[in-house]
Fold this protein.
Amino acid sequence: MTSYSYKTEKVCVREICFEIEDGKLHNVRFFGGCPGNTQAVAKLVEGHDAREVAGLLKGNDCAGKGTSCADQLAKAIDEAISKAVC
């Protein structure tokens, strides 16, 4: 299982950590932000295909910021996948 850490931008969450094993997302943890929402997102994506999760969450906007905690998770996943492929 490979661990990843992503520093976020423009959202309340400061950092997102997660693991990917066999293309599946595990142990998503948000640091900062709204605990109820971030814990719910983490539970909902546990064990799901990382690429599918990124596709579902990409573009989600929070209060006109142009991004959200969910969108930042999608960006983190995309970055992790691109690093793993190279």
About this structure: Helices lie at 35-45, 50-57, 69-85.
